[in-house]
Amino acid sequence: MNRRSFVTTSLALSSAAAALPESAPGRDALRCGADGLFRILSISDLHYTPRIDTHGIALAERLIDTEKPNLVVVNGDCLSGKDSQSEAELRTSIGYVAAAMEKKQVPWAVTFGNHDQEHFPKTQIGKDAVLAMYSAYPHNLNAGYRQGLHGAGNKHLLIWNAAGTQPVYCVWLLDSNDYFQDGKNRPYDWIHTDQILWYYQTSVELEKQHGAKIPGLMFFHIPLCEFNEMVNHAKIIGTRQEHESPSPINSGLFAALLDRGDVRGVYCGHDHVNNYMGRWRGIELGYDGSLGHYTYPHVEPDDPSNLHVRGGRVFEITQGAPARHKTWMRFKDGSKNWESLSDAFTRDHVKD
How far apart are CA 352 and CA 350, in angstroms? Predict the structure, then answer.
């Protein structure tokens, strides 16, 4: 390549990169590295309160140092909301959620779990205002979410190739809401029809805009009913130490994902001592474990049982035609489970 061609190509790439849509207002687009890789770390069930969880924050920092993610998703129950009795206490708790990512200067975003808003009877601070608190942190990407839907924070984030010319993956963040009143009972809420329509229509628009369906990973807190179907009929990799706790209402999100055929994996928190993944009707369903040390399993922070229970799930996306991802759990003891050791064995083991 002669100098003129090199300069022309460089300028074209720079122009393409400059034109990329922001991941959030004032935040750079998310892009694969020069090696074509992009890593996501998903952690959940921090259950932070105004009383600092030094062990949880230290674990988040250690996971970031080990896996070097390009994005961290805090996948619900970021807070034990009822322990924040005032705006000041709420801001303190949110500050602890932000601490590890802001210290390490890693882009991050949250989804809401069923416990996050339990401060509301005392604080009267709604979800949009809470997200504004999160969004004020320099590396947070929650701003710019779709307004007017059930819950808050429903959003998609595009991950672009290293050259900045094509999106290779889409990260979907949904609010699985909290509870609904059913007679005398208050079971878990569901992902509502307007949220599903927003996903479906946005997915169609992205395909039209970029000429192909964009593979995706979807994150929300409360698992779907289909998790139960999977564990009863298919193989899983990882630990299942409690029954799944989905909403009793099947809202049809999984059917919409099957119809569109772009989301390759759905990952949740909620059930703290589950960290498995499997495949059901062609879609990965899994958990990201738990991170906080002041929630169940209720053992002291230095108890050895924490070493292979608490941690986070990693997703490594490789750009290509098509782009692909693989996933594994990274635990407090520094180990990772054998999902990552053999792609062929994993594919064989989790056939549905």
Answer: 6
Q: Is the distance from CB of 159 to CB of 150 less than 8 angstroms?
A: no
pLDDT tens figures, 79-137 = 999 999 999 999 999 999 999 999 999 999 999 999 999 999 999 999 999 999 999 99
Contact 196, 257 (CB under 8 A): no
Integer angstrom CA distances of residue 23 from 27, 69, 219: 6, 16, 16
Task: Locate the DSSP E strands across 273-323.
Answer: 277-280, 283-287, 311-318
Any idea what DSSP says for residue 16? Answer: H
Tell me the C-alpha to C-alpha distance, in Å, between residue 87 and each of 131, 260, 314.
Answer: 13, 41, 33
Task: Give the full edge-to-edge strand order of the sheet including 71-75.
Answer: 108-111, 71-75, 37-43, 311-318, 324-331
Instruction: Specify the pTM.
Output: 0.93
Give the strand pairing for 216-219 and 155-160.
Answer: unpaired
Element (H, E) at 128: helix 127-135
3-state secondary structure of 129: helix
Give the Cα separation of 79 and 67 in Å (integer): 24
Can you tell me which residue has the tokens 């062609």? Answer: 282
Question: For residues 255-270, b (16+ Cβ closer than 10 Å) or e, as one string?
Answer: ebbeeeebbbbbbbbb
How do 216-219 and 263-268 pair as beta strands?
Answer: parallel
167 forms beta bridges with: 160
Q: What are the structural domains of the chain?
A: 31-349 (3.60.21.10)
Residue matched to tokens 């999977």: 230
Beta-carbon count within 10 A of 232 CB: 7
- State the Cα–Cα distance between residues 16 and 10, nearest whole angstrom: 10
Backbone angles phi, psi at 104, to 5 degrees: -90, -5
Q: Extract the tokens encoding 273.
A: 């001592």
DSSP annotation string for 204-240: HHHHHHHSSPPPEEEE-SSPPHHHHHHHHHS-EES-B
User: What's the confidence (pLDDT) of residue 220?
Assistant: 98
